[in-house]
């Protein structure tokens, strides 16, 4: 038995697909074939080993994660083996590792939830994908912080290889959230106004640009902190109509700040607490506030008059629920649309590409331990 294991490992190293029980005579026959043929058989049956970010328990990501090598994985008939090119570190990734996100993979788990990769090998039943194609997991799928990922073909969506890698890696969670919120709650038309907090976030930056493309005004709220003037200038450059810090809005009548801009009919809240209350102050009669995050970890407080006299509507949005619905064609069309905007330079946001070998440095930045940083994108 021990001899069989040793022979199997040696065969694997040389590109031959065998099991632990393969007779020695068959191993030798396989090894006698041309190297190309052996490598082809190997790649069609089993993935290369994968370097991955793994966690065995929930907790602070900088404590519980480790980078380790995972063994090869079998590639079944309907599977696609993808060599990951890039994957972001999203706040929801951090929350999953902490154990506070509503949906979490079973432990032990590989981190990451979106990204872009190149098809390395395909199962015998796979149609429409070939080695060398670029793909993204759509809907997003756990385990993207590793060098090779094997999942069924239904997980992967092909994308245009001319797309900048870092944008292909980050298109689903943030830009798609911005697009869906602009389209799902109010039938916005050119000349309307939206208001949002968390405007410097990737979602916030995308909302500004997507709204501007539709002729929609945007009022944007940011936190009071060092560098707020630079942040204002950057958002204005992206197309924001107005940008205010929270302290600037500590006035009785915020309508006086709007000038010729119509009162907002729709608001987006990702902060909670006082920042959410500021959105409610801006909304016009019958307006709607959509909550998609709670970065301050503070509750939303709504005055009775907001419900009775302004007739405001408060609702929530969770991208994963929408992605889980049966809208594959619509989802693919929207992703292609967003990536087309990225290629044309009409949709851009702050990113910092970090080598996968520097994972823990990128993680510290993503966790805010080095001050405000652009979104971290791991490059494999």
From TrEMBL:
Gene3D superfamilies: Medium-chain alcohol dehydrogenases, catalytic domain, NAD(P)-binding Rossmann-like Domain. Its EC number is 1.3.1.104. Residues 59-378 form the Enoyl reductase (ER) domain. The keyword Secreted does not apply. The keyword Lipid metabolism applies. GO terms for molecular function: enoyl-[acyl-carrier-protein] reductase (NADPH) activity. GO terms for biological process: fatty acid biosynthetic process; fatty acid metabolic process. InterPro entries: ADH-like_C (IPR013149), ADH-like_N (IPR013154), ER (IPR020843), GroES-like_sf (IPR011032), Mito_Enoyl-ACP_Reductase (IPR051034), NAD(P)-bd_dom_sf (IPR036291). It catalyses: a 2,3-saturated acyl-[ACP] + NADP(+) = a (2E)-enoyl-[ACP] + NADPH + H(+). GO terms for cellular component: mitochondrion. Keywords: Fatty acid biosynthesis, Fatty acid metabolism, Lipid biosynthesis, Lipid metabolism, Mitochondrion, NADP, Oxidoreductase, Transit peptide. It comes from the Eukaryota. It is found in: Mitochondrion. Signal peptide: none annotated. Belongs to the zinc-containing alcohol dehydrogenase family. Quinone oxidoreductase subfamily. This is Enoyl-[acyl-carrier-protein] reductase, mitochondrial. It comes from Solanum tuberosum (Potato).
